[in-house]
Description:
2,3-Dihydroxybiphenyl 1,2-Dioxygenase, domain 1; 2 domains
Amino acid sequence: MFKGLEHTAIASSDPERLANWYVEHLEFVINFHYDKFFFVKAANGSMLEIIPSNGELEQAKPADPGIRHLAILVDDFDQGYELLKSKGVRFEGPPYENSGNRLVFFRDRDGNLLHLIARPKPLA
């Protein structure tokens, strides 16, 4: 009956601008929009809905309660990292390895925490 997450919503002071950031930086596509609401879809089918916010984002710390980051899966970590770096993305620290996985944290245009991850073996 329950099939899983269809999308996750992010509130933004400028939804169209943030949607385009995901298109330009992470190869998402805008697959649907109406009024000021934008759905962006990744190559693997996962989606974000970007909705209008009331105000600006207050940056949370990684261990604060609630949703803390979005993990962006890549098949070539070095290529993804270099591409983001060439587009001016600022990283929270250097890339590192954890249990064989390669990761690096960064923020989107609005300051939402993301991380790039490459896994030698899928979780499922």
